[in-house]
TrEMBL record:
Residues 21-269 form the ABC transporter domain. One of its GO terms (cellular component) is membrane. CDD domains: ABC_PstB_phosphate_transporter. The keyword Nucleotide-binding applies. This is Phosphate ABC transporter ATP-binding protein. Transmembrane segments: none annotated. GO terms for biological process: phosphate ion transmembrane transport. The lineage of its organism: Bacteria, Bacillati, Actinomycetota, Actinomycetes, Propionibacteriales. Keywords: ATP-binding, Nucleotide-binding, Translocase, Transport. InterPro entries: AAA+_ATPase, ABC_transporter-like_ATP-bd, ABC_transporter-like_CS, P-loop_NTPase, PstB-like. One of its GO terms (molecular function) is ATP binding. It holds the Pfam family ABC_tran.
Amino acid sequence: MLPAHPGDQPDRPGHAGLAELEAREISAWFGERQVLDRVSLTMPAGGITALIGPSGCGKSTFLRILNRMHELVPSAQLAGEVLLDGVDLYDPEFRLTAARRAIGMVFQKPNPFPAMSIQENVLAGLKLTGTRAGRAEKDELVESCLTRAGLWTEVRDRLDAPGGGLSGGQQQRLCIARSLAIRPRVLLMDEPCSALDPTSTRVIEETMLDLAREVTIVIVTHNMQQAARVSDTCAFFLASHGTPGVIVEHGDTYAMFNAPQDQRTNDYVNGRFG
Ligand SMILES: Nc1ncnc2c1ncn2[C@@H]1O[C@H](COP(=O)(O)OP(=O)(O)O)[C@@H](O)[C@H]1O
Ligand SMILES: [Mg+2]
């Protein structure tokens, strides 16, 4: 068993417990240019929230604000609050490493360390977070993370092979396993399937549905079928005519797709623009 960390719940040893993520009045700028305007969204604990909308409306920026990656961009500014189970992520008391640890990220292009073995890839995050673990614990963690990422049966016989030798879809699941190893409470996924074939996409979607029982998921997707298949709640972002991005409509995914309140949502989910 790995050492517990703050937030671990006694009734679920080894798990940090399901957490709600709430963005309040988030605005963002790159230099003088405002790209998000007072975006508020609650991402329910243990749910899958999909962020949809045309390119350039600020979805990736919003996602990066949710795990404090936005502040790494020179010239980037932000206003508003991000609350993880009611605790402000941007409070000076909340350490950056704690924020990154609690809120993991999977990117569009799978980015395993190509020369590192599959096993080392899964464990890579532990070094960054300074978590120590013995050999047996590590083996257990590698198996459990690869299993939850839906990759274990495909790689169990070649854990020492380089991560770069896997297919694109396998590499993406390896990245998911790597994120899981540090026990995030939230997993952010920025178009995780857009570089993958339909079969790999389906496997990742199944993995997400399984994972949602233990981690809150926020996914950006341009694939409306995917949003409809995997998400419980959905938010439609739009930045019209050079204005900053806003959320036009959000709510239950089924309702958004079948009875949207706003004409622009209706047009977008039915593929009429974007
Ligand atoms: N590092 C950056 N520097 C300057 N402008 C940026 C940067 N990243 C994104 N932008 C701008 O912010 C706006 C929102 O981008 P982004 O969040 O990537 O949108 P989306 O993910 O919805 O396509 C775009 O106009 C984009 O050009
Ligand atoms: Mg993006």
